[in-house]
Amino acid sequence: MCGRVYDQYELIATEYAQAFPDDFGPRPFDRAVFRSFADLVARSGGSTALDVGCGPGQAAAELTDCGLRAEGIDGSAAMVSLAQQRWPHVRFQAADMFDLPYEAGTFDAVCAWYSIIHTPAEVLPELFTRFRRVLTDPGWLLLGFQTDAPPLTFDHAYGRDVALTFLRHDTATVCAALEASGFSVYATTKRARLAHLDETAAQAMVIAHTSRIRLVDSRFRRRCWFR
Fold first, then answer.
1. Is the separation of the CB atoms in 110 and 142 below 8 Å?
2. Which of 47, 110, 113, 188 is most buried by a 10 A CB count?
């Protein structure tokens, strides 16, 4: 995401946050994906997560509610300020997701929940490589994005003149970019758009990991390895 896009979100941050007060209450399927993701992270021994492109902070807060120690970054300082006000128990800071201000291997998980919707498909391998750098090995990645629809462009939104194009990514293309960046795809899923929530496209979710993963079944203390 370039600085020009961040500038657009600076303009609409307050109205955007008011329009999306809760991403997960009315979307139980999405919440179940989050909980499954957090469980995978925990079962492989992880506990920390970074929400990139966090916006008003819903995904970082949800990861925290799922038991992970999460924090969020966003290129819009206005979004970060709103997120910190809404979720004071979670740490947020302003940063570009292409230039993450963390040492290599800082987090056990990265979440990019609708954060690649302004990133062209040909740039995704570079972005995913940046995500992979800050992950432990093993580490997990969760993506959410719109799919199965043409790009949607707005010149006016939330009462402001803007220049925003929302890209709808093909799941196979996203998975190929993940593989090119050194990830292994663990799961993909898609649900239909929810018209009553004004969604304009189907929604895709992808979970990937960095390498060989060890999961522990807490009921039997059984260890299971997979690639």
1. yes
2. 110
